[in-house]
Design a protein that fits this description.
This protein is mainly alpha-helical. It has 2 domains: 151 residues, no CATH class; 229 residues, Heme oxygenase-like (Heme Oxygenase, Chain A). The structure holds fe (ii) ion (FE2) (2 copies). The site of one fe (ii) ion has 5 residues, from loops.
Length: 392
């Protein structure tokens, strides 16, 4: 049977006019193409299992893989009614009060991540990208992102940032974050975490670490100047100068291998808390819109500056657990290189941009402070997850 015939046959089986019945089926059992069926290792997060959110996420996974998605929706709007209803209720559960429901946050961040990840290439079935530019996906993306950002910014007053003397504000922040006081969570990770907890830490961190610096790749196209040259230099170091075994993500793979863990990107997607997904989705928000370039620079400055102190705790934990050099290679590498990257980001990227952008330069501080908040919140969620793993 020709390939097109196969795909259409698959659609008839799995995709009638409207999707009855709404019963939870493990999404790995769905595939449009038996040759290369799985785009993402989807074991639904236990928090969502047996909920309407789980069913809706499965519906969304089928939608995102469907050929002619937008034409089908035009013809049969009922195709997406159930999903959109669930989306509406998640948006109100998550963002219409202070804390919001954890399940709703997780559902929304997972949907947003599934759309954002289409901006990167995963060396998988090309058919997985058929809806990359779908107006339907674009509208879902915007609805979630707009409501989410409104909620995040509700109690944040950015007005005082506009009056800052930007250079000294950045220098002060960098000094603080290079060598912060150890928090209780940091001491727990360094001194108490067991191998079980350490594995959980690696599993969650792997979602970002195995495609590390991908967001930086998204801001490099365009005009060249000294700032651009420095961002490129940092990018080349992150990408190992074109040598796979020197790429930073490869060092993370080695650490996973040392513990017999999976090295496939997204293998542990199931374990990732919503706050960590929000951190990743926030990076997409910054790097995919050039209007946010200065905020992106502030965010990257914070990341490079703050990583060495955080990773020292992880490295000490890995040593305490008796892991060898390779088991801590990723931490060691970043403790050394990110101290330099932080300096470069401050002196050769952020400060020249302060000079160039004058009255808009405060946005670098905004990006820095936001990233500090997102990273801290994600860090707390990781520690909660680690503690849960330890206590099972
Ligand atoms: Fe790195
Ligand atoms: Fe770096």
């Amino acid at each position: 049977m020709p390939r097109l015939g196969n795909l259409l046959a698959g659609c008839v089986i799995f995709w009638p006019q409207k999707i009855p019945p709404r019963t939870a089926v493990h999404p790995n059992s769905f595939s449009k193409n038996s040759l290369n069926p799985i785009r993402l290792d989807i074991k639904l997060n236990t928090l969502l299992s047996n909920t309407d959110y789980q069913i809706s996420e499965e519906e969304f996974i089928r939608l995102i893989r469907l050929n002619d998605l937008d034409q089908r929706i035009d013809k049969t709007p009922a195709l997406v009614e159930d999903f959109e209803e669930e989306l509406d209720s998640a948006l109100s559960e998550a963002y219409e009060n202070q804390e919001g429901s954890v399940k709703a946050h997780l559902f929304l961040q997972r949907i947003l991540y599934r759309i954002n990840r289409l901006k990167l290439f995963w060396y998988d079935d090309l058919e997985n990208y058929v809806n990359e530019n779908s107006p339907f996906l674009f509208s879902i993306h915007n609805r979630i992102e707009t409501a989410w950002q409104g909620w995040e910014n509700k109690d944040v007053n950015i007005e005082p940032l506009k009056n800052l003397e930007v250079e000294s504000a950045l220098r002060r922040r960098v000094k603080e974050d290079l060598d912060p006081q150890s928090s209780g969570d940091a001491l727990f990770l360094r001194n108490e975490i067991t191998e079980t907890g350490y594995r959980r830490l690696l599993a969650i961190a792997s979602l970002d670490a195995l495609v590390e610096a991908s967001q930086l790749s998204r801001v490099l196209g365009g005009a060249s100047n000294e700032v651009h040259a420095m961002l490129t230099r940092i990018f080349l170091e992150e990408y190992g100068g074109g040598k796979l075994d020197r790429k930073h993500s490869s060092f993370f793979s080695v650490m996973l291998k040392e513990l017999g863990m999976q090295t496939r990107p997204e293998a542990y997607f199931d374990l990732v808390p919503w706050n960590v997904l929000a951190n990743i989705n926030h990076s997409f928000l910054l790097c995919e819109r050039k209007r946010n370039f200065l905020r992106y620079v502030g965010s990257l400055l914070y990341t490079e500056v703050s990583v060495p102190a955080v990773f020292r705790n992880y490295r000490d934990a890995s040593r305490r657990l008796g892991l060898g050099q390779a088991g801590a290679g990723y931490w060691d590498l970043h403790i050394k290189e990110d101290e330099r990257h932080g300096q470069w980001m401050l002196e050769d990227v952020a400060l020249p941009l302060v000079e160039q952008y004058g009255s808009s330069a405060w946005e670098i501080v905004w990006g820095y402070d936001q990233q500090r908040f997102f990273s801290a919140r994600a860090g707390k969620a990781i520690v909660r997850s680690v503690r849960q793993a330890e206590n099972v």
